[in-house]
Amino acid sequence: MIFNRLFCNRGILFQNFRQHGWLGILYLITLLFSLPLYIATAHRDIPQQITSLFQANGETHILFAITFPVAMGIFLFRYMQSGAPSDLFHGLPLKRKHLLTVNLLSGFGMILIPIWLTTAITGWVWAAQDRMAFIFDGSEIWMWGLSMSIYSLFMFMLTVAVGMCIGQSVLQGLTVYAILLLPVVFWFIFTLHLQHYLLGYPYGDMNSYAEKISLVLRMGSINLIPVIRLELIIYSALAILFIPLAYVLYAKRKVESATQAITFTLVKPIFRFGLMFTLVLIGGAYFTVIAPPGSAGWTIFGYVLGGIVGYIVAEMIIRKTWLIWNVRLLPKLALYGLLSALILYVPVADWNGYAARVPEVNDVKSIKLGGDRYTYVNGVNQRMDDHPFYSDSPEFLGAVLALHQKIIDSDLPLLDPVNPDDDYDEYVYISYKLNNGKVMKRKYQIPETEFRQELMALKQLEDYKKVAYDTYKLDEDILSIGIRSTISSYRKIYIGSPDQVREFKELLKQDILDQTYEEQRSPWQSFANAEINQESHSKDPYQPRDMWSYEIKPSYDRVIGWLKENKLYDQLLVTADEIASAQFVKQEIDSPGNPQWVYAQPEYIDGSLGSSKQVATKNKKIISDLLERQRSGERTEKATVYQIKLNAIRGENIYMMLKEEDLTEEMKAILSEK
Questions:
Q1: Is residue 420 predicted with pLDDT exceeding 50?
Q2: What angle do CA 646, 650, 651 make, to 5 degrees?
Q3: Cα separations in angstroms, 238 against 10, 235, 495
Q4: What pLDDT, on a 0 to 100 scale, did the predictor assign at position 211?
Q5: What is the pLDDT of residues 114-155, one digit of tens each?
Q6: Which of 260, 291, 425, 646 has its CA at a distance of 20 to 30 angstroms from the CA of residue 654?
Q7: Residue 191 burial (CB < 10 Å; 0-12/13-18/19+)?
Q8: Which of 366, 370, 364 lies closest to 429 in space, CA to CA?
Q9: 570: exposed, middle or buried (C-beta count within 10 Å: 0-12, 13-18, 19+)?
Q10: Residue 435 is inside which H or E element, if any?
């Protein structure tokens, strides 16, 4: 009876539902429209196999889970943020723990009842419908209900805990979402700082995980990246942790702190530094991006400006006035600035040994080149097992370590080169699996010309080519192979005979593994692309096969010889007799400090055909030479290129690009005449 009368006071409980129950009803309606009604009315010619109900309109579910519970937490505890209501409620013959308990129970009810009613109705729809647009197991329904409950309760308890430290409802809501976004801001912007000042930092490596640390960003990935058990455990633990924290904070909160920005003196320096350091990072990142390469002074200016603005804004919020000047302002600003500088400096300092560390060969178990790989299975983006991509070959280990040591010893400006010229075209991403069980990762962007000897020694090894060109897939069973010309998409062949498939894939693998370093770096476009088709492990009828694409380069003599032998080569070949004329348009690239990608651009040449820059020819020798040499796109600051259009007698026209040094004597002759 004491528990019912005090901890679960019916009067306050009924008052909460009468006054704020509309939030729970609205939550229920939105959930019903976004899940059971959606899956019951959606139409697909072929049903989609899904492994999570978040793959069916999941971003909407998460949107509701991060908004309604926050609104409930603000409205239920609104009395704490206003002077008169605060005096009224705290004047009732109830202890604070009793008042908090009944309000928490009200919030739990308004959150969980809509979620589990929606779960039950979804289960009924799933059982009653014979044919739906989505195919899923009954366990996915309960998993959705559990996930939504955990997400919603986490948001509610975070709002309550924040509300104990904040004296204004609007600021309370803003602070909740700021806390959710703060880890992501620190993640991305501090990563930019490390990339700019710490040689070898593997920037971008953890970006795929960033969405999992913020429910706000989870909206964009929930239908691609599945909900994992660890994620739910973490959010559950945090939601549970916030419950006793709310009781402790509420017991210590002063009644007169209502309407104040920050209710606890201890929280004020945390708020000041958090806001100030966030703006320090944002200011530094902004000026790092817009400043010319090598202009370190602008980055430092951004840090200082962001710190000053951040501290002033924090003081204005805390004091609720812009009149913040006093004698202690500058000493506090200097103290916070010094702390910010230490946090920025220590991770990138030379004495910590990060940038100069190259592991000993005896400490390395195996090495992988390249970052993580992902694949889609049943519409879900999953990280691939990287075990096949590691190599323990002594020759491979020695080549990678030699390249790594050369990079460390180099005096080149390798820190955040931002593509200062076209030579910085090699990305080296090394993952060391050490004997102590740890994984050491480093990432560099280097000029090929300065490291050619080391790169050649590495890239001519079979262990490198197996991973770089995915030859391990050619060792697996293949259903069929489709080959399409890179010049004309209408030129294609299909290989379905098991014997021919086996012969072709073996020859393709040999040609790939026999590539020289120069052939790997060849600027010429491939002759054709081969697409291998394998049985898919997916249950999705839209994904009946796994497909992998391989280039067929002009240097692949075995494959091209096999195509000719089997009378397939001519079916991919476009001859000069099929082309009526060729048209050239000169394009000058001149953008120092701002390299750009140059490639075949149909819109550029079609928009220039009526100008005086156009040169046309029907010379079959020139057309034949063009059909045999097309340059791939490249990144450059300064170049003279020719956009070329081959006008077909029948079918599609062909667009290509050549640099000035690629032109034959005949081409130069007709261009000079013009």
A1: no
A2: 80
A3: 29, 5, 56
A4: 63
A5: 999 999 999 998 888 777 778 888 888 999 999 999 999 999
A6: 425
A7: buried
A8: 370
A9: exposed
A10: none
CA 156 from chain centre, in angstroms, equals: 28
Q: Reduced to 3 states, what is the DSSP secondary structure of residue 254?
A: coil
What letters, b where the CB count within 10 A reaches 16 and e where it falls short, cover 264-301? beebbeebbbbbbbbbbbbbbbbbbeebeeeeeeebee
Pair 165, 267: CB distance under 8 Å = yes
Percent of the chain exceeding pLDDT 70 equals 87
Separation CA 102–CA 178 (nearest Å): 28
Query: What phi, psi does 653 have (nearest 5°)?
Result: -80, 160
**Which tens digit of pLDDT belongs to each residue from 308-356?**
888 888 888 877 677 777 777 788 888 888 998 898 888 888 888 888 8
Residue owning tokens 């004491």: 2
> What are residue 648's DSSP bridge partners?
579
Q: How many residues does the chain have?
A: 674
* pTM score of the predicted model: 0.77
Closest-CA residue to 73 (of 147, 176, 192)? 176
Whole-number Cα distances in Å, 554 to 82, 308, 319, 644: 77, 60, 72, 20
Per residue in 556-573, pLDDT tens? 999 999 999 999 999 998
User: What does residue 483 show for φ and ψ, rounded to 5 degrees?
Assistant: -120, 130
Interhelix angle 296-319/329-345, nearest 10 degrees: 130
Locate tokens 């592991």: which residue? 359
Contact at 8 Å (CB) between 645 and 606?
Answer: yes
Over pLDDT 90: what percentage of the chain? 28
Task: With cut-offs at 50, 70 and 90, classify the pLDDT of residue 49.
Answer: confident
d(CA 322, CA 312): 9
Contact 178, 169 (CB under 8 A): no
Residue 225 tokens read as 């990246």
Phi, psi at 582, each rounded to 5°: -125, 140
**What's the helix, strand, coil split of the chain in %, to 5?**
55, 15, 30
**Strand, helix or coil for residue 71:** helix
626 has pLDDT over 80: yes
